[in-house]
Amino acid sequence: MKRSFNQEPMPNPKPFLTQWSRRQFLASSAASVAALSIPSSHVPAQENREQVRIAVVGSGGRGSDLIRKLTTISTARIVSVCDIYPPHLERGLEFAGAGAKGFLDYEKMLKEMRPDAVVIATPLYLHFEMAMLALASDCAVFCEKTMCYSIDQAVRLREEVKRRNAIFQVGLQRRCNAIYRQAIAMVETGMLGRITAIKSQWHRNNNWRRPVPVPRDHPDWERLEKHLNWRLYWDYSQGLMAELGSHQMDVANWALSRGPKRAMTSAGIDYWRDGREVFDNVFCVYEYELPVSDSEKSAADGSDTGSEPGSPHSDAVSSPTYTVRVTYSSIQSNAFEGASELIMGTRGTLLLTQQKGLFYKEDGPLDPGWSQDGRVDQDAEVVTSGKTLKMKNDPWAHRGKPYEIDSTADDTRSELVEFLDCVLNQDPATPCNVDVGYEDAVTALIANQSAKEGKPIENEWS
Ligand SMILES: NC(=O)c1ccc[n+]([C@@H]2O[C@H](COP(=O)([O-])OP(=O)(O)OC[C@H]3O[C@@H](n4cnc5c(N)ncnc54)[C@H](O)[C@@H]3O)[C@@H](O)[C@H]2O)c1
Hints:
- Among the domains are: 19-166, NAD(P)-binding Rossmann-like Domain (Rossmann fold), CATH 3.40.50.720; 178-288 and 319-355 and 432-458, Dihydrodipicolinate Reductase, domain 2 (2-Layer Sandwich).
- The chain has 13 helices and 17 strands.
- It has helices spanning 19-27, 30-36, 61-70, 86-96, 106-113, 127-136, 151-164, 178-188, 221-228, 239-256, 294-300, 411-424, 434-453, and strands spanning 52-57, 76-82, 101-103, 117-120, 140-144, 168-171, 195-203, 262-268, 281-291, 321-331, 339-345, 348-352, 356-361, 380-382, 389-391, 403-406, 457-458.
- It is an alpha/beta fold.
- It binds nicotinamide-adenine-dinucleotide.
């Protein structure tokens, strides 16, 4: 690939046709090798408006998932797959099915196939350059999260998408998940009251490593290690914040309708001291500043009959904004509670996961419901004399049964369906557009900057 757009280092762009991989590749099944030379059957987009001709670049873990889901969508037609690592290319072609042509060179694929849309599922450091090339080839772009490796790239990519009024979507699939959409609607209609805090996390218990298929003393080990385990090295990756935190922080940005004002992060390599460079343990506190609403202002200046001296909003007129604090943690040595977001408001709480959302009503700040007036909730028990109370099993029990939001839909498939609809309708209003991707990238990247510089980082980019 040319480095025409990229100012960042772009290490290791050569295809893996070394002695080792060539042998491996040639030894692979005749059928899939044959698939590499299947000629293109190019149908210009305008001749078949019912299907989008898609080229996929990067058929590793995520790319393979996307290919498999695309093959279940009637508006999708995968015309080609590109990957510089032959075993992955072979697998991607197998998933894509007959008719998809294989490429080791992305630019060549764009020139030869002239697809309607490009799906980018390569390592983070390549997103910007590949997206810019796809846009220059007049393609719609579906780019996996995180949108860009650096803020500078995110600024430039956003400009380019807007300049072209291009169809561009970032792969933050919660944006297309029925549970999250319902939850955000509940936030917007005020069911949670004023949001006062968000607590979010993605905790795992694994080392994130992939096996390297040659011994450590093999001349190709270093290159294969960096290629397969790119997530662990700063030249290619932005670590946990980009790989996992981008999802949760997008939910926070969505619920609060903006990006954060500042980020403070403590992070380190605390457990997996195996040669990796990126943190395996990240704890962030973000501050968001929101405007005080008109109804709160009138409550504070007394024009609303409900105003009370000493109410939480009584200084609202002199202080036109308030702060919402959002915590995010990601660890790789304990998976307790997995991935979730807890959105807390004065009237209720949403506990969100991709499979289920739970809404708990709040009893109200003056009536916690289990320790007022010496009275004890029936689900609580006194375990010592004095005030110490212990809830039975479920710490949420005193709040009663939550409302459940369920969905069995596959949000990754849904995001692809919606993207393809936008392409077919030539509609740039994708469900996760470049502004969302931009804000999300900035949010993830300033957390890393804060950890590296050891100080809070003001968000100057939103
Ligand atoms: N939205 C999600 O839930 C989700 C889940 C997983 C990964 N992702 C994102 O998808 C992207 C890929 O992640 P992954 O886990 O699939 O990584 P991966 O390493 O499994 O796959 C990346 C693929 O890109 C290929 N590649 C590298 N350089 C290339 C080049 N110059 N030209 C063509 N192909 C090249 C590699 O050979 C590899 O097959 C990342 O941005 C990641 O954050 C998103």
